[in-house]
Design a protein that fits this description.
Layout: H1 9-19, H2 22-40, H3 46-70, H4 72-78, H5 91-109, H6 114-131, H7 140-147, H8 150-159, H9 164-185, H10 189-194, H11 200-229, H12 237-258, H13 267-290
């Protein structure tokens, strides 16, 4: 019989911190905060913004925690530095934490528009379906394409405000969602291949994943530019010009510094730059439309 390792309190705290995937979750919190601020501008309701951000943070944390819970056996073989294989967090504790975070999300959403709760539950189903099986299939990219557009829609619905750009943001965010999925999968593509996982990135391979990622980003920028130039979505010109300029600058940096096949040590940085581009393009476009 295996004796459980005795843990110090600081190790438990560190374990749960790492279990929460702090940096990726932070990106989601920044994104929903930006959209919530824009949705309530110019008369910001800090109580509403706080509930929108806190509920989304609880949901993202539950997805992150349960992701490691679901991957605990594979991580024990190939990623022994993760908190569960290291013994910092026990599987039952991770499962309980994930469930409690879902409960917290629901409670935080009750004072908001009921549609905000329904949208969040849909996002949660997509996120957990990714954890509990779809992550290792080509459908993982479809999950991201469906889930990412829900973030701005959720923020605006939660704030009780709908503007035309939100509807057009759905196809743009769907393209960016596929790009994010591929960029996020690149650092783990060798491990996923060794574990016989059939993620979209594994099916495409490193080079084609990078190319498809770039194509999706470029298509999203072109779509935003066309909708702007044709005045289908009215925007504040100065803000929109800066948004497109910065987005194109990051695309050039991705192509120039990483090439068609990003090397292994650079793939995390590649992913973070893709995240930054998505925040700038999506957040900047919505801001430029909201203040037009």
């Amino acid at each position: 019989m295996q004796i459980a390792k005795k843990r110090r309190p600081v190790e438990v705290v560190l374990g749960f911190f790492l279990l929460c995937h702090p940096l990726p979750v932070l990106f989601h919190i920044v994104a929903v905060t930006v959209f919530a601020l824009v949705a309530t501008w110019p008369h910001s309701s800090w109580n509403v913004i706080g509930l929108i951000v806190a509920a989304h943070a609880a949901m993202q944390l539950s997805i992150a925690v349960l992701n490691d819970y679901c991957d605990r056996q594979a991580d024990a073989a190939s990623k022994k530095d993760k908190p569960i294989p290291r013994g910092l967090v026990r599987p039952g504790e991770a499962l309980l934490a994930g469930i409690l975070l879902i409960a917290a999300m629901i409670l935080l959403l009750l004072p908001l528009n009921p549609w905000a709760l329904l949208i969040s539950l849909l996002y949660l189903v997509l996120g957990q379906s990714y954890n509990f099986g779809l992550k290792s299939t080509p459908l993982s990219g479809i999950v991201f394409a469906l889930a990412i557009p829900l973030i701005p829609v959720y923020a605006f619905v939660g704030a009780g405000r709908i503007i035309p750009v939100i509807f057009w943001l759905v196809p743009v965010a769907a393209l960016l969602g596929i790009a994010l999925n591929l960029a996020n999968s690149l650092p783990d593509i060798e491990d996923d291949t060794a574990n016989t996982a059939r993620t979209l990135a594994v099916v495409l391979g490193v080079k084609r994943s990078s190319i498809v990622c770039s194509i999706c980003i470029l298509l999203s920028i072109i779509l935003v530019a066309v909708l702007t130039l044709t005045h289908v979505v009215p925007v504040r010109g100065v803000f929109m010009g800066s948004t497109l300029f910065l987005s194109i600058l990051i695309v050039i940096a991705l192509l120039f510094f990483f090439g068609p096949e990003p090397p292994v040590p650079m793939r995390k940085l590649y992913f973070y730059l893709v995240v930054l581009l998505c925040l700038i393009l999506g957040g900047g476009w919505v801001l430029a439309a909201a203040i037009a």
